[in-house]
Amino acid sequence: MKHLITAALLMLALPATAQEKLSVALDWTPNTNHVGLYVAQSQGWFEDAGLDVDILPYTDTSSGTLVAAGVAEFGILSAVGFHSQRATGADITAVLAVVQHETGRVVFNGERDDIQRPADLDGKIYAGFGSAWEDALISTIIRNDGGEGVFDTVTLGTSAYEALANGSVDFTLEVSTWEGVNSGLLNRPQRAFRYADYGVPDQHTTFLGGNGTWLAQNPDTARAFVQAAQRGYDFAANNPQEAAEMLIAETSGMLTNPDLVRASMAALVDGGYLQDPDEPVGLIDTEMFANITVFLFEVGIMRGEDGRPLDVMPDVSSWFTNEYLSQVD
Q: Which element (helix H / strand E) includes 135?
């Protein structure tokens, strides 16, 4: 009898159902593009959905590679990186648009009188990050303004912003809601050219993506995770400063400039980057997705497994889905 009572007590002490473990890989060190994940974690919404979610730190292996290989079920993916990997046949599917519109821009010192339009960038020095996308993007913008699209490139990575500030380079690319905000906090005057003003289609710059095979085999778990993350981003869109504090707390000191986090969250929300009016947070726009894919195909960014530019525009209808989101008809 004693053994039966002990067993019964042990059963009562155990959760009714074991939480399902899954992981999500970050595309960079923690920042405000990841805020929905950390809000969901902070508020216990993953746990409420029966999930034990491990947010994997950024490594030299891209989040898209980790997701495609099945090392992580989900990942935060840069849009261009996602399209490039998907073109090679990588097993990844976009399931939520983290950022609804293009946040990137061509930026230069705001006190420069010799740069008034993109054509003025011809022959100048660009501080780059080493991707083919950059050359295609900047050349397109300059040519669409009547220039030749010829410039010198030095690959500096994140050192580009210091180089721009000290005048050793003429221009670079930045994310307006992060590096752009930081430049404002540092009192570094800037001016910028928006891509869409010069013939580059608008795009969702960041996605939450999942391993395609895993999604097909685990639709209920996928839906539970995506909707918990969506709830986190929805909270952030409506409560940016509270979300900023959760992001700071959950990342345990990894974000060393709280003022940047708070200002970045304000920029994301005030600029309408987290949510379009009358649409659920996270919705992937079919037309926008198609337009940027056509652009990437036409400028030769989309390459197959052999490394050569694709000869035929791919059918991208299976590259993304809104089916795991809540409040979507």
A: helix 132-144
